[in-house]
């Protein structure tokens, strides 16, 4: 036990100073996506340690090393101090060790007695289970339900990983629309709605050229959004913008309906979201409507602090003021401030350097003529 306690203490001291403060859950969530079999292999390794402890007395020299390092790893891992990825080198060493023990048994003339056969049996079963777990978990994680399950579970601080998962679904085309639509509805039926999951599923649907995908987003906007709960405002804003981008001019009647309802009920968030989304439809009349409400959009921009909706307004107004191409309206990075894991390509053909604090004077009349000309040429 002295060696065990010493190993635990040494491992704890070797960890980064802020490891305990870091969000290990976020880091481990990414690791689970990239290595879906790692959790099961760690449990298998723990079981192997226990069985080896029971049937190997005294412990062999090699097994003792794994025991004195493996147990501290699990103790600190349960305390969320050790990143899950640190288990990978341990597992690799263990895998090589077990294979070596099996080969050594057959390459040397050891007596075929129970004392020698038990460790051999444990090692063989461990190897077979490890290979099976790697194969089964990898196949399951690569399936459409497996990828959909990961949406919303990855920290938005890792947008590259989030987009890699979403792109895997988007590449599969219309075939994934029904399960995505089902997952979206199920996510909205829960007592707690995950903004991350809803926004990421909606993004996948918006990038698939399929009428059912567009209809699903429209149904969510018309029948599922209330604009009454601030905790839902971010995913509602994301879904409306994504719908505007994928439906284009077809989204204008729906979004104008939201605008009218927001003005009638004096719902600031509903009115704001409708205007931001209308600007992304690429429709000249929709853009003209947004410019008619410039005063409303600029009302809250001179505050001492910046909120996510203010930042969305800044980049939208910047796109309207500096954009020289219809695609610039969609390129404005409105999703960055939402922090929902969405980070589409915000490059533009006009060389605009996006600024979340952009706040300059706008001439609505001039911009109406400017965008009417640009969008007319596009159509």
UniProtKB/TrEMBL annotation:
Q: Which InterPro entries match?
A: ARM-like
* UniProt name for this protein: Uncharacterized protein
